[in-house]
Design a protein that fits this description.
Elements: H1 3-7, H2 27-39, H3 44-52, H4 70-95, H5 102-126
Helix pairs in contact: 2-3, 4-5
Length: about 130
């Protein structure tokens, strides 16, 4: 055991929760609790745990509540497929000893660059972030 581990107070180390507790609620109670958790921008599980243990509720956005635009992500996926296909064409031609004309390579590389720029912009839009 390293010296650092020997000095560590293991009682204070955060351990991943491993127990599952079931709870029976009416549909109205469930809706109310979910609404309160959403108002606190936290998961239902975290909200209930914090309330039960009289701890402050901290922001913890659920991983399941994605705000990403699915259609935009599909478009990005398609662009990435085109980029891969164009790149493969150049590499394959070179591997077979074919000289790729400068004009053809330049055109393909311009297409790839345009698709990458478009994909980057779409990703930022889908993830609601600024570039």
């Amino acid at each position: 055991m390293s010296e650092q581990n020997a000095k560590r107070d293991w009682s204070k180390v955060n351990r991943r929760a491993s127990r599952i507790v079931n709870l029976r609620l009416t549909p109205e109670e469930e809706a109310e609790i979910e609404s309160r958790a959403a108002g606190e921008q936290t998961t239902l599980s975290h909200y209930l745990k914090a309330a039960a243990l009289s701890q402050p509720v901290t922001r913890r956005v659920s991983r399941r509540q994605s705000t990403a635009d699915v259609e935009l992500l599909r478009s990005i996926h398609a662009d990435l497929g085109r980029i891969a296909g164009n790149s493969y064409q150049i590499v394959r031609a070179m591997n077979f000893g074919r000289n790729v004309p400068d004009e053809e390579a330049t055109a393909i590389l311009k297409d790839i660059r345009a698709a990458l720029v478009r994909t980057r912009e779409q990703l930022f839009t889908a993830l609601e972030r600024e570039p």
